[in-house]
Design goal:
This protein is of the alpha/beta class. It has helices spanning 42-48, 96-99, 157-160, 166-177, 193-204, 217-225, 239-250, 267-276, 300-306, 320-332, 351-359; strands spanning 2-9, 17-23, 30-39, 58-59, 63-71, 83-86, 117-118, 129-130, 140-144, 148-150, 186-189, 210-214, 230-233, 257-262, 277-285, 309-312, 342-346, 365-369. Strands 3, 5, 6, 9, 10, 17 and 18 form a 7-stranded mixed β-sheet that branches. Strands 13-12-11-14-15-16 form a 6-stranded parallel β-sheet, sandwiched between helices. The longest helix is centred in the C-terminal third of the chain and has 13 residues, at 320-332. 52% of the residues are buried.
């Protein structure tokens, strides 16, 4: 066991704290990873607010890159010294989804078996719940070995670590779930970190036009930097009409975009996506709604009559072992600008301030450097 510094949400709604935690030595199937960088994601804030569950204290952070320090006795997939991006989809190979070949739907993904614990304070010894089974706002963390995906060690950690969550969700929403290819038109509604990643993924796949929609002009400017060919400020004009107009100007007869990606997670914007897609087009919901949200007044005949596919995308339907090394290579070749997602590099004590910036839409990603 060893003691390291880490960012913990002790109780619901309270600001996060930098504390000392105990990290066990890796047991069977486990690895200890020395964290290099970890991005700040909305999900960390949701944990802190009690919006995911009540299993406090949480060890936050889950968009991380680092170097494997030690592995358990039976681990063969990674070794000490490997540069890895951490994932929250360590597939089991044995559940119903894995057995039928849908590994990206694995229902029993692996996490570390042993628990990390608080080292100090009145609740010393309390077991930590690591965010998404990772917990990487920490100098070191304990994960299942399958959560470590080895990638090119020359890559910049702050950039490629983001593939561990939000950026992969967006890119995967486009290329995996939406099956975006050359010759297709795409619209992305909501251009935060996830939506801009969907824009970048669509551009990478050769789609045109790639239409970015947001209510914030700064976000639209960033989307253009990352590959959007057109922008629509939906606080100023009707995004459905604008998407239809832009697509028809490129492809005669088009009645919308072939693929519309919703990256906000709200009924109004999902409905815009629904009506902005071409006949037989695809809607991909990658924004995460809250439990009480409903889509009101959607005529079932419109669902039937427009055909196509209404999909959702969890973690960009990614397979880390397939997608992370491939995307890191494209990044290294200059074909995917992962640096563009890193708005700032911050210290371990700056997570609470980063939540504030995220809340005000000031950043795509703040990345903690450990
Ligand atoms: N129409 C268009 N864009 C909108 C609207 C709207 N009505 N409301 C908000 N937006 C934009 C915001 O301006 C912002 O640019 O959606 C974007 C949301 O981005 P972020 O808050 O940075 O969130 P992000 O990290 O991209 O995640 C998007 O996916 O993972 C989930 O929980 C996450 O639901 C969230 C979504
Ligand atoms: Zn499985
Ligand atoms: Zn995340």
């Amino acid at each position: 066991m060893q003691q390291v510094k880490a960012v913990v949400a002790r109780t619901k709604g309270a600001p996060v704290e930098v504390v000392t935690i105990n990290v066990p030595d890796p047991g069977p199937g486990e690895a200890v990873v020395k964290i290099s960088t970890c991005g700040v994601c909305h999900t960390d804030l949701h944990y802190r607010e009690g919006g995911i569950n009540d299993d406090f204290p949480f060890l936050l952070g889950h968009e991380a890159a680092g170097v494997v320090e030690a592995v358990g006795p039976d681990v063969t997939g990674v070794a000490p010294g490997d540069f890895v991006v951490l994932n929250w989809r360590a597939v089991c190979g044995e559940c119903r989804a894995c057995k039928r070949g849908d590994l990206h739907y694995c229902f029993a993904t692996h996490n570390a078996t042993q628990k990390m614990t608080l080292a100090d304070g009145p609740d010393a010894g309390a077991e930590l719940s690591p965010a998404l089974g990772i917990g990487a706002f920490a100098e070191k963390t304990l994960v299942a070995a399958g959560q470590c995906t080895k990638v090119d060690a020359e890559a910049r950690p702050a950039a490629v670590g983001l593939l561990g969550c939000g950026v992969m969700a967006g890119i995967g929403a486009a290329i995996n779930t939406g099956a975006v290819t050359r010759g297709k038109s795409v619209a992305v509604i909501g251009c935060g970190g996830v939506g801009v990643a969907a824009v970048a993924g669509s551009a990478l796949a050769g789609a045109s036009p790639v239409i970015a929609v947001d209510i914030d002009a700064k976000k639209l400017a960033k989307a253009v930097e990352m590959g959007a060919t057109h922008t629509v400020d939906s606080s100023q004009s009707d995004p459905v009409e604008e998407i239809k107009r832009i697509c028809a100007a490129t492809y005669e007869g088009a009645e919308g975009a072939d693929v519309v990606i919703e990256a906000v997670g709200r009924p109004e914007t999902w409905k815009q996506a629904f009506y902005a897609r071409d006949l037989a087009g695809t809607v991909v919901l990658v924004g995460v709604p809250t439990p009480e949200m409903k889509v009101p007044d959607l005529p079932l005949i419109d669902v039937f009559g427009r055909g196509g596919a209404l999909k959702s995308s969890w973690y960009g339907d990614c397979l880390p072992s397939r997608d992370f090394p491939m995307l890191v290579d494209l990044y290294r070749q200059g074909r995917l600008d992962l640096d563009g997602f890193v708005s700032e590099e911050i210290g371990i004590g700056d997570v609470e301030a980063a939540f504030e910036k995220m809340h005000h839409g000031e950043v795509l990603r703040s990345v903690v450097v450990l």
